[in-house]
Amino acid sequence: MALELTFIPRRFLWFLLAHHFIVVTACHEADYGQLIEDYCLSQFKFEMEVIGQKLWCDWDETVGSYGELTNCTFLIAEKLACYWPNQLVDEFFIAIHKHYFKNCSLSGRSVRDPPNNILYPFLVVPILITLLMTALVVWRSKRSEGMV
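Structure (tokenized):
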């Protein structure tokens, strides 16, 4: 019993030290969020305005600005001793994508139907093959000679 009581102060001491260590090295998310809004987002907004809304979905035009935005969030996280990426960065980039890239396809080009001269063969050929195979099965089932 006395041996168990001697471990309690040590555990309590470790708890205090760990808590102090976490408080000292913890990331101040409010400061981090404000800094990425002030420095990173303001520069990104300016660059996106220069590019123009019509070219927001053109990856060749936006890759430089997007890369600088990513690096900016990383450098600020590094200066504030924050983990990167973290939940705040994820939410920040989701907001960026919802505002600037919501109408973009994955390839960066607008999605549209192919021209009719390409589309029609892809529609007609499977239909004709299906009809031909059906006719062949019906013809073979009516011909009973030579069946085992």
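Residues 11-24 have pLDDT under 50 and may be disordered. The radius of gyration is 32 Å.
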